[in-house]
Amino acid sequence: MSLSASDLQDLQASLADRLFVQISGWHLYLGDAELAKPLAIECSARIDQGAAVAARQSIEAVKVSLAGGASQLPLSRLLPPAQLRELEEILEPYCR
Length: 96
Hints:
With 96 residues, the protein is an alpha+beta fold. Helices cover 49% and strands 17% of the residues. It has one domain (5-95). Helix 1 (5-18) crosses helix 2 (36-46) and helix 3 (51-61) packs across helix 4 (81-91). The longest helix is centred in the first third of the chain and has 14 residues, at 5-18. It starts with a helix and ends in a 5-residue tail after the last helix. The mean pLDDT is 95.
């Protein structure tokens, strides 16, 4: 199961405004970092597994380019733990 185009856009908007990566005390929201869409797509593909599993697997699957693409890290390495819980809360309504 995946989300409809409308639900995917709603999810992307929620992720863009509510989730951030934290680097040296700075918060960079996923919308500004252009990571909301790839994360929404990954979450949509896993939504049938439940919010907790979809959240964890999706943040591992999304790779973040650093230093102009010289290196990549999974998004999970850049999100504070509270942001994972926030992602799970965002995904809950889509799992029903």
